[in-house]
Amino acid sequence: MSAYQKSVLITGCSAGGIGHALALEYHRYGYRVFATARKLESMAELAAQGIETLQLDVSNAVQIQEVRQTLSVKTDGKLDILVNNAGQIYDNAITDSEVERVREIVEVNLVSPIIMTKEFSPLLIKAGGRVVLIGSITAILPLPFTAAYAATKAGIHSFSNVARIELAPFGVKVINIVTGVIQTNLWRDGKLPDDSLYKPMEDLYITHRLNIPQQGSTPVADYARGVVRETTKTVPSDWVYLGHNSLMAWAVETFAPRWVVDIMMNRTFGFNGVRRQARAQEGGVRKLS
């Protein structure tokens, strides 16, 4: 009989993203990888590598249960690692946010990892497995134009803390990856809505919100190697900081008062300039009236 092969289920494995890179790296480590995404064709490269791919929309409760049943049969009811990676970016100002889009972000980024952990907990408990959550430095650093996304990641950080305590008695470890800026295909070209309060400052938005964060960003393959290395350790850390600016986020969270952080963010992302332009416009409106 062949030796037992550990298994990992990863959500959000479409080509070009973090989950795709994680699937390749766990596969390289010898894990039996179950990669999931909303569209099977987005994982064609993984299937070609011998990785098992399954269709899964993490906001669809029926599909989650179907994948759980499939894995239970394929792995004798065990799952060694669940990686809750699936997520969506939403980089709009609060005042430009679309209500339904915000609800979708919360559903995919926060609600779904909670439901996934619940549904797969029997398999994880049987294996003495691990839950890996993909957090973000946006939950720590108040980066402009990330409010909805950052709120979901702050929720993930809190969820990881509670889940770690609740699942520990059953031998399941919970690991939160505080993710820095990673080179993926999720970044979009910057364009503000025509009616945005920030439209007159769009040049500042493009320069400071879109261009600066990507400078020095960590290649997704390097990030994946770090995640797999940390999550397969005999005694893993509860929180792992990986990727560009993640250690800065740790230092800010540990040592810096809020007012210092606010000054740093205002300078870094050009909001001092935004404030000056807003005041100039306000003055012009007053003169016209």
TrEMBL record:
Entry-linked Pfam families: adh_short
GO biological process: phosphatidic acid biosynthetic process; triglyceride catabolic process
Record-level Gene Ontology MF annotations: acylglycerone-phosphate reductase (NADP+) activity; triacylglycerol lipase activity
SUPFAM superfamilies associated with the record: NAD(P)-binding Rossmann-fold domains
Tree of life domain: Eukaryota
A GO cellular component entry from the record: endoplasmic reticulum
Keywords: NADP, Oxidoreductase
UniProt xrefs under PANTHER family: NADPH-DEPENDENT 1-ACYLDIHYDROXYACETONE PHOSPHATE REDUCTASE
Annotated family: Belongs to the short-chain dehydrogenases/reductases (SDR) family.
Protein name listed in UniProt: Short-chain dehydrogenase/reductase family protein
Organism: Mycena chlorophos
